[in-house]
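Researcher: Final request for today, and then I'll write up notes for the group meeting. The sequence and the SMILES for magnesium ion follow.
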Amino acid sequence: MTNDYILHLEGVGKTFQTKNGKSIKAVQQVDLDVRENDFVCIVGPSGCGKSTLLRMVSGLEPITFGQVVYHGQEITRPRKEIGMVFQEYSLLPWRTVIDNVALGPEFAGISKKERETRAMNYLRLVGMEAFARAHPHELSGGMRQRVAIVRALANDPDLLLMDEPFGALDAHTRILLQKELLRIWEQHRKTVLFVTHGVDEAIYLADRIVVMSARPGRIIETILVEMDRPRERSHPRYGHLAEQILAILEKEAAQNFSKNGNILEEPF
Ligand SMILES: Nc1ncnc2c1ncn2[C@@H]1O[C@H](COP(=O)(O)OP(=O)(O)O)[C@@H](O)[C@H]1O
Ligand SMILES: [Mg+2]
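Model: Predicted protein-magnesium ion complex:
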């Protein structure tokens, strides 16, 4: 591996063992290289193993096959340099907004004054400083996700893993936060690995889109977006890429249908 890549996945796979002794192959044979400052989106059908893959990269989920290497070191547990943002419910409800954002610095032993200053700066970055003393239940979904993003940033991670972070938001808020995320990414030069089932969202955000198969999730195609930012959704290439990716996903769904007779997940 060259030092060019900060993240290197080789033959990564996951098989879950369920309580009744069944094996569920969630992810299979994933090879992926991510460079510093890359914005990579992973799209794929629901249940194909996207969250499982991201959790393996984060060190939260043990890996069954292959390895995840970050800056030359195998990932076996969560690390400070890798931040994670989930779809929802990731804020601690009993803590105020500022105390949520200051959580990482608090664990790192940073003084109250300094961590509050740092948290406030991050809250300002997403226009949330007026809500510093509010609790998560007092915020809208979009506000909560803004806080979740800056909470991850407050640990100053190099790599940000995001699992459908805007999936539960209304269309308008989602578009606003996509813009905001790109602004933060450009300003802070993070590397982002972003899972979404939204093809439109992937084309708006990514340098590179990785398309996964139905479960067990494999990478079936990698697409370079190659459009300047900010991207216009009315640009012909935008529509062309969307068609291309949707065609891959449709073909995959059809194959899965003929293979399994249905496209529903197996109960377990
Ligand atoms: N802890 C677990 N135990 C057993 N099966 C799991 C577990 N977590 C996920 N799975 C299964 O792995 C597959 C992939 O899940 P997931 O990674 O959540 O998919 P996605 O994020 O693409 O929707 C699904 O079939 C899911 O039911
Ligand atoms: Mg998921």
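Model: The pocket of adenosine-5'-diphosphate (ligand 1) is lined by residues 16, 18, 24, 26, 44, 46-52, 215, 265 (CB under 6 Å). The chain has a mean pLDDT of 92.
Researcher: Thanks, that's everything.
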